[in-house]
C-alpha cells in the first residue's frame, strides 16, 4: 500500500508544482505581451552603460495618424532626477514606452550615456534601466522570491538589504512568516502602496544606472505616501532617475520638472521656479492642494 501511496503522493506534489509554475508562466506571458516587439538590428551593440544619463532630442511620435508627442527634448545628466507631470492623456507614459522601444520614434533620437537606443541590443537597453511600473505584477511565491525577481541569483542578504532600503522592513515584521510569507494570487494581497514598494525593492536590487518610476494613480493614505517617498529617495541615491508623476508631492525635490500638455513640453524648471512662473504647473499644484 505504502508503495502505491508514495508515487501518488509524489505525483500530487509534482502536480501542485506544475500548477504553480503555470500560474507564474501565465503572469510572465502577460509581462511578455508588453515587451518591445522591435528586433535587434544586425549591428546592435551592448556597450557598458554606467551613468544612465538620458537625452531626448526632437522626439515626435504618432499613433497611426494621431500625433501624441511633438518635438520633445530634455536631458537628465547622470545622477539627476527629472519628473514629468501633466494632465491625463498628455503623453507621459508614451515617453516611457519610447524609451523602452515598445514603439519607434518617427522623429528625433533617444540616447543613454550617448548611445542611440536604436543601436543597442534589447538586452543592453533593459539592463541599463530599472522600472517601477504603475501596476506591479506579484508572482504566487514568497515576498523574498518576488523581490529577488529583480536580480535572479541575488543572495538573501542582498534581498534583505533591498527590503530595508525600500522601507518594507516594518511591513515584513508584521507578517506571520516574515519575508517567507506567500504573496500574490493565492497568498497575501498587498495594498497598492505596498506593491509599489516591492517594485522599488526589485529596482534597487537590479541596480541599473537609470531608474524610471511610473507612479500609480491609485490614491494612497498619507502614511503610505510618505513610505513611498522615503523608498524613492533611497532608490534615487547615486542613480539617474525619471519620474512620471501624478501626485506633485513626488516631484518637489526634482532637479527639473517637465510640464507636458497635449504632447508638448510647455514649461520646465524646478518646483519653486515653476510656482513663480504662475502657469500650468501652478494650476496643477493649486488643484491638488485644495483639500
Ligand atoms: P495618464 O496620466 O492618464 O497615464 P499619459 O499622460 O501617460 O496619461 P499616455 O498614456 O502617454 O498619456 O497617452 C497619450 C495619448 O495617447 C492618449 O490620448 C491616449 O489615448 C493615446 N494612446 C495611448 N496608447 C495608445 C495606443 N496604443 N494607440 C492609440 N492611442 C494611444
Features:
291 residues, 6-stranded mixed beta sheet, 4-stranded antiparallel beta sheet, 10 helices, ABC transporter-related protein
What is this structure's SSE topology?
Layout: H1 2-32, E1 54-63, E2 66-76, E3 81-86, H2 92-99, E4 107-112, E5 115-116, H3 122-128, E6 129-132, E7 141-142, H4 143-148, H5 156-165, H6 169-173, E8 182-183, H7 192-206, E9 210-214, H8 222-236, E10 240-244, E11 256-261, E12 264-269, H9 271-277, H10 280-288
Parallel strand pairs: 3-10, 3-11, 6-9, 9-10
Antiparallel strand pairs: 1-2, 1-4, 4-5, 7-8, 11-12
The structure holds adenosine-5'-triphosphate (ATP).
Descriptive report:
The chain is α/β, with parallel strands linked by helices and 291 residues long. The protein is built from 10 helices and 12 strands. It has helices spanning 2-32, 92-99, 122-128, 143-148, 156-165, 169-173, 192-206, 222-236, 271-277, 280-288, and strands at residues 54-63, 66-76, 81-86, 107-112, 115-116, 129-132, 141-142, 182-183, 210-214, 240-244, 256-261, 264-269. β9 (210-214), α8 (222-236) and β10 (240-244) form a beta-alpha-beta unit. α5 crosses α7 and α7 (192-206) runs parallel beside α8 (222-236). Mean pLDDT is 86; it is low at 22-30. Bound molecules: adenosine-5'-triphosphate. Adenosine-5'-triphosphate is lined by residues 63, 68, 86, 88-94. This is ABC transporter-related protein. Residues 54-287 form the ABC transporter domain.
Amino acid at each position: 500500500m505504502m508503495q502505491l501511496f508514495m508515487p501518488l503522493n509524489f505525483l500530487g506534489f509534482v502536480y501542485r508544482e506544475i500548477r504553480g509554475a503555470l500560474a507564474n508562466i501565465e503572469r510572465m506571458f502577460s509581462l511578455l505581451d508588453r515587451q518591445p516587439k522591435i528586433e535587434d538590428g544586425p549591428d546592435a551593440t551592448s556597450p557598458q552603460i554606467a551613468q544612465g544619463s538620458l537625452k531626448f532630442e526632437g522626439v515626435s511620435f504618432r499613433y497611426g495618424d494621431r500625433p501624441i508627442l511633438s518635438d520633445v527634448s530634455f536631458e537628465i545628466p547622470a545622477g539627476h532626477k527629472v519628473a514629468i507631470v501633466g494632465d491625463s492623456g498628455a503623453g507621459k507614459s508614451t515617453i516611457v514606452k519610447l524609451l523602452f522601444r515598445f514603439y519607434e520614434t518617427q522623429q528625433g533620437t533617444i540616447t543613454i550615456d550617448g548611445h542611440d537606443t536604436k543601436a543597442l541590443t534589447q538586452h543592453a537597453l533593459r539592463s541599463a534601466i530599472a522600472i517601477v511600473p504603475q501596476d506591479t505584477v506579484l508572482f504566487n511565491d514568497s515576498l523574498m522570491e518576488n523581490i529577488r525577481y529583480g536580480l535572479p541569483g541575488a543572495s538573501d542578504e542582498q534581498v534583505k538589504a533591498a527590503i530595508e532600503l525600500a522601507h518594507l522592513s516594518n511591513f515584513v515584521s508584521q507578517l506571520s512568516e516574515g519575508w517567507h510569507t506567500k504573496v500574490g494570487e493565492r497568498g497575501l494581497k498587498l495594498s497598492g502602496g505596498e506593491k509599489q514598494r516591492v517594485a522599488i525593492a526589485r529596482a534597487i536590487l537590479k541596480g541599473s544606472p537609470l531608474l524610471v518610476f511610473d507612479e500609480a494613480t491609485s490614491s494612497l493614505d498619507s502614511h503610505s505616501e510618505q513610505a513611498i517617498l522615503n523608498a524613492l529617495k533611497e532608490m534615487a541615491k547615486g542613480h539617474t532617475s525619471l519620474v512620471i508623476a501624478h501626485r506633485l508631492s513626488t516631484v518637489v525635490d526634482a532637479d527639473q520638472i517637465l510640464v507636458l500638455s497635449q504632447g508638448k513640453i510647455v514649461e520646465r524648471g524646478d518646483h519653486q521656479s515653476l510656482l513663480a512662473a504662475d502657469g500650468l504647473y501652478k494650476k496643477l499644484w493649486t488643484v491638488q492642494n485644495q483639500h
